[in-house]
From TrEMBL:
InterPro entries: Cop_transporter (IPR007274). One of its GO terms (molecular function) is copper ion transmembrane transporter activity. This is Copper transport protein. GO terms for cellular component: membrane. Belongs to the copper transporter (Ctr) (TC 1.A.56) family. SLC31A subfamily. It comes from the Eukaryota. The lineage of its organism: Eukaryota, Metazoa, Ecdysozoa, Nematoda, Chromadorea. It is a multi-pass membrane protein. Its main location: membrane. Keywords: Copper, Copper transport, Ion transport, Membrane, Transmembrane, Transmembrane helix, Transport. It comes from Panagrellus redivivus (Microworm). It is found in: Membrane.
Amino acid sequence: MSHDHAGHEMSNMDHGAMDHGSAAMDSGAHDHMGMGMAMYYHFSSMETILFKFWNTKSPIGIVISFIIVVLFCFLHEAIKWTRLSWRKKVADATAAANADQHNDESAPTHGRAISCPMVGDFVLHAAQLFLSYSLMMIFMTFNVWLCAAVVLGEASAHLFFRVMLPGLDRAAGWHSVASASCG
């Protein structure tokens, strides 16, 4: 009888090393001991978040992690709005330069070269991507408290920056959408 399953030889496993009666095999420990992950929404206070060292073992740990995740959301939105602000400034400067160029026909035209603002945007874009995927991974723990932290953190941070930076709100085109849908 062959023990070949999906190309893996089962006969090479040390069956004596497997303790099927151990306490680590119960359903609660199974989800948090690296042997599996809860693929359903749950309210557990025991969670490993992003890194092996960031784990919670009590409700206080979940509350502290909730606050940290909300702060991550504010940092994510701050980066997004900073990039939007820089793009608006570059667009305004480019429009002014184009207006000056039309007035002076002898001005040389240059191709697009890498500049300090482009490098800065590159770095901020990379940080934004890292935070975006990290927040997605936090949500994918399916822990209701952490999912709520991501949703409430992102929504409140977005609202905060829209209120604090209304000029960028219009530059991003959100003003026209809001006025069209809200009357």
